[in-house]
Amino acid sequence: MDGAEKAQMPKQIPYIIANEGCERFSFYGMRNILTPFLITSLLLSMPEELRKGMAKEVFHTFVIGVYFFPLLGGWLADRFFGKYNTVLWLSLVYCCGHACLAIFENNRNGFYTGLFLIALGSGGIKPLVTSFVGDQFDQSNRSLAQKVFDGFYWIINFGSFFASLLMPFFLKEFGASIAFGIPGVLMLIATIIFWSGRTKYIHVPPAPRDPHSFLNVVRTALTTNVPGQARSGYFMAVAGVLLAIGSMFLIPKVGIVAALCLALVLVLGFGGMGAWMQLERARGIHPDAAVDGVRSVLRILVVFVLVTPFWSLFDQKASTWVLQANDMIKPTISFSIFSSSFSFEFQAAQMQALNPLLVMLLIPFNNIVLYPLLKRNGVELTALRRMGAGIAFSGLAWIVVGFMQLAIDGGNALEITWQILPYALLTFGEVLVSTTGLEFAYSQAPLAMKGVIMSFWNLSVTIGNLWVLLANSSVKSAAVTEQIKATGMSVTAFQMFFFAGFALFAAFLFALYARGYTMQNNYRQAK
């Protein structure tokens, strides 16, 4: 009997999967009605011509927070409290954030406080739940891990589908308190389910403070002076710090959140390049395994950087695409129950339900039909090939959306159903990037850095949304706007084609880098 036949599914997995399904319903339930709520309620006091731009800014700033706080959650779990305790406590913070949204529907400060608490709670637990799934496996049953990660992503979209379909309806019919309150109840249920499995989980304790940690090795590499050798890597890192400080002068133009995120990107980018250039200087001071581990992490981070354009396109389906759908013809659905007749107009935000529905269909289709078919025909879709193709498909989706926008700008009345095609392309790209990326990030991370690496995977989403904020800020300039008008396109259509080109170029660079990447197997050993 081989290892694959002996492998058994951990019995605690259903608790984590059920928790994730409820939590994702709560998150997407509030996220997918956020833009419509801001436009039709919270931001009504603003001039109409500024309202859409501000709604996009608030939305993407919130998403930046959601995917920035994984850094904090991963650090707390890896260094102090462990994954289980950190997830449980931050889930309670998460519940408080939902309560603020339901209570302060007419108070900007209270509502924004709720968004901050949700970003902290949701972001803090995001990398930990995923890596907590990985902790339940070892070398004896790791063959089942990808199936669970696929199932994990499937249940995420199961919750997202019903949230996307129902919450816009509840917002319109019952008001913001009910629409934001229901996701809060689901988050409370998610927390209770997670707590119920506490005695069944495999708990990997926090790593003790390590003198040969990633940051210590990087610090040694950058600061060690070798006589007769240039300190190019050190000066590269210093340049990153200086540029990060200089980015603070952009706060009046792009806002404090975008400026801080840009500063973080500059420090990480230039610091990482500098460490790579001088990493061998740490050898002898730190064990070879630690130095090789840092080089492995830096290679992983390059993959994550190249994925960021995908997220800049993907997350705009809840902002830019919803705003486009508002300008399209929406069908009225009528039906009868017994002697009563009912009708309601399909909401623009409900189109987002297509995304999770297609995910639930595409994951089994890919695993059962597409991947085996390609393999029989000699095409092996490795993890990196899947991710590169996913980025390219997102670019194709935005080309389609761009042409639709040109038609709308030209006075053509388009049915909202035209968005089905770009949703299908974008979702296919998402399945190739996200389900693969979750397992890739976990398997490639050194054992002592699982939580932090998953945090960096989520940070790629923050950086993707940073590109959106910077692009939106750039078109506020009168000079840029006039140049765009000279092309004969509206600003919206121009940005759509810009982001499409951004993704296709990133896919090309990703393919080049993937050719030289060596895959690792960093699951823990079986006991």
UniProtKB/TrEMBL annotation:
Keyword Transmembrane: yes
Subcellular location: Membrane
Transmembrane segments: 58-77, 84-104, 110-130, 151-171, 177-195, 257-276, 297-314, 353-374, 386-408, 420-442, 454-473, 493-514
A Pfam family that the UniProt record links to this protein: PTR2
Presence of keyword Transmembrane helix: yes
Membrane topology: Multi-pass membrane protein
Organism of origin: Undibacterium umbellatum
Gene3D superfamilies in UniProt: MFS general substrate transporter like domains
UniProt keyword annotations, A-Z: Membrane, Peptide transport, Protein transport, Transmembrane, Transmembrane helix, Transport
PANTHER family: OLIGOPEPTIDE TRANSPORTER-RELATED
PROSITE patterns referenced in this protein's UniProt entry, alphabetically: PTR2_1
Main location class: membrane
Official protein name in the record: MFS transporter
InterPro entries: Dipep/tripep_permease, MFS_trans_sf, POT_fam, PTR2_symporter_CS
